[in-house]
Amino acid sequence: MANAEPTAPRLKLLRQLEAILGRTAVDDFTDDHVRWDLYRAATRVGEARPILFHAVFQERDGALASAVVVEVLEQLAPQERAAWVQALDPAVRDFSARRVQELEVLGAVDSGDFTTAEIQRAIDSWSDWLQLRVIAASDDRKVLRLFSELGRTKRIRNTALSSLQ
Question: N or C: which end of the chain has fewer CB within 10 A?
């Protein structure tokens, strides 16, 4: 989906991101694929994040802004995540807000704050993404066995089973 030419302030932010990333200037930012590529690269560069924050929230394509926020959330300190989600248009905020909650659960599982019994009670409400991430992060055989038996999909169960072996 193409957007209209960016406003001067938004174009300035896009140019700043290009400079930080050492990219050649793009002539046309009306293509959302071009902006996505720039934004996604900027999510991995800490120095670019303050500018990315402002660029994304001037982004007219709500779905694109939401995708960028989801991409950057894992790289942020937990206390920074809410600001990124709150800055999104409320119409596209739900998925990013859920990802923040999932990252909190993942952190709690990683730190051992979730018991196996608590995981068993909560597992049905967890997304496939979260279940797979817990499996990838866990070396606890009880947790892996639990997912091999109760994981939502065959892929999740098989991934947990493979991790057990």
Answer: C
